[in-house]
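=== RUN LOG ===
request id: a7f3
mode: sequence -> structure
chains: 1
length: 197
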Amino acid sequence: MTTKQALIGFYRFNNLNLTADFESHCVRVYIGCILAPVPNIKARKKYLKFHDLHHIMTEYGIDRVGESEISAWELGSRSCRKPLISIMNLFALSTGFVLKPKRVIDAFYSGCRSKNLYYLSNSMEDAEIDSLNLVDVKNSHFEIKSTIKFKWLRQIEFAGYIFFSMIIHVFMLVAGKTLIIAEWIKNKLVEKSGSKK
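=== RESULT ===
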């Protein structure tokens, strides 16, 4: 099976509309426990294929915990080399860590023993990537190392990721609550001014 065939099957199985996703200006993603709109920037579209291939290789789902697992896995596999990817990973990391911490930690360690696919975006054309054999890709990238070098340093690194992810989570909760309160106050003022007429 080629990577393209695997992706088509993945999108069908999960009822995802890739055309609509690419054409929309915003996509809704979980940032902590909030489903928030995020700009659908060109870089996200460029890397989405690889992110979804990581889901297929690792078999992590697309629910809240699954997205946290794949975020942890990508951070473990050094997605920090692509800063935008790391920021997007931090958005999704906290919820799964709160709900299922062991699964997210295990995913990070799995990533530490693996190699992500993001580097392919600079070294291969889309048609070449689409024709790669999925089994070969998985065998050459997923958990290819038997041990984690300097595991204690990687643990500190992961703690840092969790810290920043929690800050993002709290910020989004506060911002979301502030917007809800502002909307409530606005509606009350409109009602009050309407009743005076």
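=== NOTES ===
The chain has a mean pLDDT of 88.
The radius of gyration is 20 Å.
=== END ===
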